[in-house]
């Protein structure tokens, strides 16, 4: 029996996964943490730019508002990027959509690089919107691409590579933010546009790699192109089983044509899937992970960590995310998706309770802040090894081809909208609630733990049609979302 590495290296699959990763979730991961280290320098830049224009210092509240806009506009761009996933992936295909996202990221980097010389914080906001649009479009296109190149047996591992690259992006952002690398006041704009290099690599290399086989077979109707893509990715073979599965899905797609956003929301047959992913993504965002990634500097400062040590703590956080994501990739096909969700959420809840306690005791001893930092690292490890690792895999599995693009639009818009609100509100929330903001995060993690334990079906090793039937079979108090059709006869 072939090992996972042998399966990935028989063709170009491993290379394609790498190229997709550096232009996909790596970019999102980098942009989610890039503001952490240079945040004091950017706020000083806002102050100096304001003074340069108006010959007076800005009110402190104004700096907070501009800073919140810089943080949250990334998510606003992501919202519109997610909204356009269906249109662009349907029109251009998965591969060209990914190239399009990289072009946008390169333009954004150019604007960001020029913002310092132009003394314009507005250019930072514009660049962040474009970065967000690129990430929103890229995340949907990338997740679809991975799901549509993956054989059923190793689908979980292949789709989970997106989380590994997300963690790598976060670590790279934290690494470049070190004062010994680019984390100095005169270089903060270089920190914010560094990942454009990987976008350039993707634009150059991706045209020579195959399109997603499922897209070619089911949507383009080309079995020859599909087989050629499968052989290019996974080595020589007839791939009859994979193509028969696609044929079944194509027949289901013809029986139920592709839906608009409103039609999908009204469709009772996918309501459990949409509800499940919505609850998971809402709880993921409100569990505190987005706030910790984006505002790690402020959180560790509140925890009592010395300013000169915070960057190294966040770097350790990034390393732990990568190690945990890799471990999750090795485990997901062994223990399944379901235990990773409810077990991860349960451990996250316990970590957050302890974080709340230690943050309130931070002045009692010099070592307490380091306990808080360690608990936050544990929280991140439990997230990446559980729901953070399995969420993208689950989303790629539970929708059939006809529903997938529209579902990615709906879920992506929800996720980015919440991220935007959280980015705008959290600086004020941490000032108002201090350590007690983690109580809210604890409640959301507990809710997700209960939901996934009670209602989420296991999807490991099942085809997308089988998974769809599992969701249709979910009942609460004997009732299901799926309406049974009754045929009445007149005597």
Question: Could you characterize what this model shows?
Answer:
- This protein has 24 helices and no strands.
- The longest helix has 34 residues.
- The radius of gyration is 23 Å and the shape is globular.
- The protein has 491 residues and is an all-alpha fold.
The secondary structure category is: mainly alpha
Helix content: over 70%
Give the C-alpha Rg. Answer: 23 Å
Order of helices and strands: HHHHHHHHHHHHHHHHHHHHHHHH
Task: Using the alpha-carbon principal axes, give the shape.
Answer: globular
Unreliable stretches, pLDDT < 50, 5 or more residues?
484-491
Major sheet description:
none
* Percent of sequence in beta strands: under 5%
State the gist of this model.
With 491 residues, the chain is an all-alpha fold. The chain contains 24 helices and no strands.
Strand-helix topology:
Elements: H1 4-9, H2 13-23, H3 25-33, H4 39-54, H5 60-83, H6 85-118, H7 121-149, H8 155-176, H9 188-191, H10 196-205, H11 213-219, H12 223-234, H13 240-255, H14 261-266, H15 271-286, H16 289-294, H17 296-303, H18 307-335, H19 338-360, H20 368-385, H21 387-397, H22 404-433, H23 437-455, H24 464-472
